[in-house]
Amino acid sequence: MRTRQGKYRPPSPLKLPIIGHLHLMSGYQVPYQAFTSLSKKFGSVFGLQLGYVKCVVINGQKNIREALVTKGHHFDSRPNFERYQQLFSGNKENSLAFCNWSTTQKTRRDMLKAYTFPRAFTNRFYTLEELVSSGTRSVVAALSTNTTSTKSVISRHCANIFTRHFCSKSFDVDEATFVEMVDNYDEIFYEVNQGYAADFLPFLLPFHEKNLKRVNGLTHKIRDFVLDHIIEGRFDSFDVQAEPDDYVESLIKYVKSGESPQLSWDSALFALEDIIGGHSAVANFLVKLFAFLAKEPQVQENIHKEIDRVLGTKEVSISHRTLLPYTEATIFEAIRLIASPIVPRVANRDSSINGLEIEKGTVIFLNNYDLSMSPQLWDEPEKFKPERFIREERLVKPEHFLPFGGGRRSCMGYKMVQLVSFGILGGIMQNFTIGADDTSYTVPVGSLALPKDTFTFKFVRR
Ligand code: HEM
Known about the structure:
Elements: H1 31-42, E1 45-50, E2 53-58, H2 61-70, H3 82-87, H4 103-116, H5 123-144, H6 150-167, H7 176-192, H8 209-231, H9 234-237, H10 247-256, H11 265-276, H12 278-294, H13 297-311, H14 325-338, E3 345-346, E4 351-353, E5 356-358, E6 363-366, H15 368-373, E7 390-391, E8 394-395, H16 414-431, E9 432-435, E10 458-461
Parallel strand pairs: 2-6
Antiparallel strand pairs: 1-2, 3-6, 4-5, 7-8, 9-10
């Protein structure tokens, strides 16, 4: 449609009163599939009115790169959904993922980098390597008994790897308070990964009040755990002149030295809680990966062969990633099929994509699911084929594969996903074949969240 200034707006389907185009999202497993189907009719950049919220959906590698990179600074805010406000004590700016762009967010990201992207051959990398290896040994021991829930085992050990790596704090993974903390994170993670019509029609929020209160209660319990069992007396005792040993100390040092932009201790704690919560993403991802593998005996055999050929009986560790390209490609393939969480952006100024005008305040959905599943970009995209990521025995990531977004708001945890998943997957495959009594299930796609006990596996010793 042409504006008065003679510019073009993204085309849009006919809308209904009040709900706008919300009804067009129903009938699909994931909203991404609705986006792909609508793009066939309305083009790669089209507008949607979801309830009260003006949105634009961006499809196609070129357009998505324009939004993430070339004009990344035009689209670096996040939506103001009331649900997010309530989850972060009435201020979504406390959240690492849902805040708008600011110098504070830049500082928080810069501070995190050293821990979430540990460089190879550094002490931090080797320490993480040892944490992942010892966590994996415990996972293997726990799964050998086949009596506990896989998701629970993986979640507790991933949480322990995260608290050890970011906070230098190790826990007994069977201890009740720690298990409760892991369960609370999992419930919150599930909640933030759900799409709610109330995000677009706020008058529906009262229907969610009870649930939101419950989830808010869980966030408070996590805060109590962090203060009582992770921070303990560290804030007061840390000497600001000292070099920080972990992420907790980096935050304490920053807050205590009053650097600019200022970060309150409360905000710093939210950042810490968010990053510890990354373990839920890794754990849920791993369980979905096992669900794919239980249906793919040939892929398991290929991984077994690769590990046996390259390492023999030597224990797999995260340093072996480049030596085991097929094993690593299996992780990429699962990420491709599961698809990224939908983490919308918001235009912080009037801008355009592919020549079409986008107004300030518009919510932007980037359809990276389509980039991962398009038959134009992938051979047999529905199939689980790790070899698609391998060329001449090396792992190759195609340019159109963008599961972690990009630019200044790109995922802060992708390296942790790759390293921790590789270590645990490698250790499990070295020891087991994964089976399931019934493999007629489909693996849920379009979100990383997974309800408890969705899958029951059999880990059979090799
Ligand atoms: C398979 C697992 C994961 C996938 C597919 C994934 C994907 C994504 C995507 C698509 C975004 C939005 C990026 C953008 O707007 O350009 C994002 C943001 C983010 N992710 Fe992840 N993520 C995963 C795991 C993790 C983990 C384990 C952590 C923490 C250790 C993490 C931390 C974050 C943070 C903090 C942001 C927000 C960054 C910002 O807005 O500045 N993610 N992730």
